[in-house]
């Protein structure tokens, strides 16, 4: 059953503004809403791509080694680039604040990309921007 609060949170995010109500519901159904405390490691550099997150609220630090390379917040996705690119993780991600996220397995991301061309395009655009692909 679709969580209306999750759908509303997704609808408010710019990255997913092109998705239809049905696509947003599909996205909410495929993910699991999770609360993550501050200073928690979500993703570790050079590990397999087994999960991805959409940040609904809060902020994360993206790190290569010990260096912070980015701060991301609501509407940003993390972990999808390695799944889309079939690569090991290129960076680690640690929560800076408490987070509300939508968690996806790599299988759920692959399934959503097959079922929604709009979702697939949004992730591929993000992946190209982050990894410098054309």
Overview of this structure, please?
By secondary structure, the protein is of the alpha+beta class. It contains 5 helices and 8 strands; from the N terminus they run H-H-E-E-E-E-E-E-H-E-E-H-H. Strands 1-8-3-6 form a 4-stranded antiparallel β-sheet. A 4-stranded antiparallel β-sheet has the order 2-7-4-5, with no helix packed on it. Strand 4 (60-64) and strand 5 form a beta hairpin. The protein starts with a helix and ends with a helix. The model has no long low-confidence stretch (mean pLDDT 88).
List keywords for this structure.
single chain, 134 residues, alpha+beta, four-stranded antiparallel beta sheet, 5 helices
Oligomer: single chain
Q: Please state how the strands of the largest beta sheet are arranged side by side.
A: 1-8-3-6
- Helices and strands, in order, run as HHEEEEEEHEEHH
Coarse structural class: alpha+beta
Q: Main beta sheet, described?
A: 4 strands, antiparallel
Short summary of the structure?
The chain has 134 residues and is α+β, with helices and mostly antiparallel strands. The protein has helices spanning 4-11, 21-30, 80-85, 106-115, 117-131, and strands at 32-36, 41-43, 51-57, 60-64, 67-72, 77-78, 92-95, 99-105. The model has no long low-confidence stretch (mean pLDDT 88).
Task: Record the SSE blueprint.
Elements: H1 4-11, H2 21-30, E1 32-36, E2 41-43, E3 51-57, E4 60-64, E5 67-72, E6 77-78, H3 80-85, E7 92-95, E8 99-105, H4 106-115, H5 117-131
Antiparallel strand pairs: 1-8, 2-7, 3-6, 3-8, 4-5, 4-7
